[in-house]
Amino acid sequence: MRRADRLFQIVQHLRGGRLVTARQLAERLEVSERTIYRDISDLQSTGVPIDGEAGVGYILRQGFELPPLMFTRDEIVALVAGARLIRAWGGVSMARGAEEALVKIEAVLPKEERARITDTQIHAPKAHISMEERRIIDAVERAVDQGTVLNIRYRDLESRESQRDIRPPGALVLGQGLDGDRLVRIAQCFPYIPHGSYRGSKRCGPPLPR
């Protein structure tokens, strides 16, 4: 669990109107009591009205509400630009996720900040990616996330075809080659072949999860 999520959970657990000990919080959040003491001290230092002390327990004063999610101007611009880049270059699921994330962000922004989303004039050029290729990008992303092996048919620059098992440790978009092909470094092959670059137009068969 990320520390930010843990701090949020501590506040939620202290809303019940009764004392909660550091040991109880530590057991619920699966961390040490020392970590809980440090987190509570940090929350108190930022103005969260937590009363109590070590060995007795803690309680959150009534009426406290977490402030709404806030972003700075630069953060909003970065999120919008990133989402547009994913929409232009990402897979089907990734592009949909980027759009849905922007909708959620817009929903929690104050009214005066929402216009920054549509006013941001940073755009990603639309890539010439077929729907099939976008689905392949999603398949590679899932393989990276789950650590699974993909089986692909591949044609190299000399037009030699081969069947390969690959386990992609990550995907890095390098841009475009001189011939307009997208270059994406993705995988380690089995049997081992040194990492190499993949040209979308040179692939002759889609990856199949194995």
Automatic annotation (TrEMBL):
Gene3D superfamilies, per database record: Winged helix-like DNA-binding domain superfamily/Winged helix DNA-binding domain
Keywords tagged on the record: Transcription, Transcription regulation
GO MF term (any one): DNA-binding transcription factor activity
Top-rank taxon, per record: Bacteria
Keyword Repressor: no
Pfam families: HTH_11
Domain HTH deoR-type: residue ranges: 3-58
Protein's recorded name: Transcriptional regulator, deor family
Originating organism: Brucella melitensis biotype 1 (strain ATCC 23456 / CCUG 17765 / NCTC 10094 / 16M)
